[in-house]
């Protein structure tokens, strides 16, 4: 792909579609003045972000939003963190006549991105290692065949292809970040232990990779600043059985781990069961070769750093919480 010359700008200007858990942690590392805008799905969240100096736009994927096209015109960096297809706000009716497949950003702003946005220098797209599907526990890297099993993973593959075409038309690098299971503050085994929802399902040979949200933010920072394109697995060093991770969290919190439950006898939702139908070990060698050094290379370092959530798990179990 022939890339257009990078404009002589001294300051990066970011626009983020989808200010969720992962993208929100990345945005928190930026100077709010460098953020041209972020999208959210509710007015309440927009009000909260505006109070913290950001410029939020309410975008549901079903309609264009006033002001986004102008913000895209000024942006040098574009981050996409919204799923393909229709996803309504929590509590709203999902599906129906208004539901449409495909990437919601390209649905409304492909022309502005592919043919406009004169300052654009880099696009980042947050995807998932789910696009690889099942590889029977074998190692996969970015050259591996994609074998999407679920509908959501097939939609991701289609969205990746669509963004590659848009970036090629515009002539800017596109970084596709394929993320493993995301954890971090407020979203981890300690939280599940505290709420009583932690389970230790045992399926022989099953492993998953994980990624701390701070490493997602760090990888984005490196790729965006260096304007690197390509596909990158953003995942930790150690694919591990999920029951081991819960046991390790329980050990840190000094509370009893839930008993092991055979996978075959467990009652699971279809979505939860589908996750266990994909077994692979995901390599992060390409991201390391690009210069990224992981802050939390395995779940052990990641969980050890989540002291506030560990304390809440201890408190929920009726144990004393260490004083700082």
TrEMBL record:
Transmembrane segments: none annotated. Keywords: NAD. It comes from Aurantimonas aggregata. Residues 125-234 form the NAD-dependent epimerase/dehydratase domain. The keyword NAD applies. This is NAD-dependent epimerase/dehydratase family protein.
């Amino acid at each position: 792909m022939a890339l257009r010359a990078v404009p002589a700008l001294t300051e990066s200007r970011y626009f983020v579609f989808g200010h969720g858990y992962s993208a929100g942690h990345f945005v928190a590392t930026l100077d709010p003045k460098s953020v041209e805008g972020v999208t959210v799905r509710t007015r309440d969240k927009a009000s909260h972000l505006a109070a913290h100096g950001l410029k939020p736009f309410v975008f549901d994927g079903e309609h264009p939003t006033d002001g986004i096209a102008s913000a895209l015109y000024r942006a040098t960096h574009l981050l996409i963190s919204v799923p393909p297809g229709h996803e309504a706000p929590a509590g709203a009716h999902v599906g129906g006549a208004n539901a449409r497949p495909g990437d919601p950003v390209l649905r409304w702003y492909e022309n502005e991105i592919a043919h406009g946005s004169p300052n654009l220098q880099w696009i980042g797209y947050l995807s998932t290692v789910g696009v690889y599907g099942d590889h029977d526990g074998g190692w996969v890297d970015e050259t591996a065949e994609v074998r999407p099993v679920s509908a959501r993973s097939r939609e991701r593959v289609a969205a990746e292809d669509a963004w590659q075409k848009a970036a090629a038309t515009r002539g800017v690098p596109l970084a596709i970040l394929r993320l493993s299971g995301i954890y971090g503050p407020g979203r981890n085994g300690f939280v599940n232990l505290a709420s009583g929802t932690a389970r230790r399902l045992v399926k022989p040979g099953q492993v998953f990779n994980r990624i701390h949200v701070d490493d997602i933010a760090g990888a984005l920072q490196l790729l965006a600043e260096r304007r690197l394109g390509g596909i990158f697995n953003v995942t930790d060093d150690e694919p591990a059985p999920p029951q081991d991770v819960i046991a390790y969290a329980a050990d840190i919190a000094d509370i009893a781990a839930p008993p092991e439950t055979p996978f075959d006898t467990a009652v699971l939702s279809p979505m939860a069961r589908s996750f266990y139908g994909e077994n692979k070990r995901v390599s992060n060698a390409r991201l390391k070769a690009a210069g990224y050094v992981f802050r939390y290379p395995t779940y052990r370092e990641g969980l050890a750093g989540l002291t506030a959530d560990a304390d809440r798990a201890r408190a929920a179990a009726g144990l004393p919480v260490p004083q700082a």
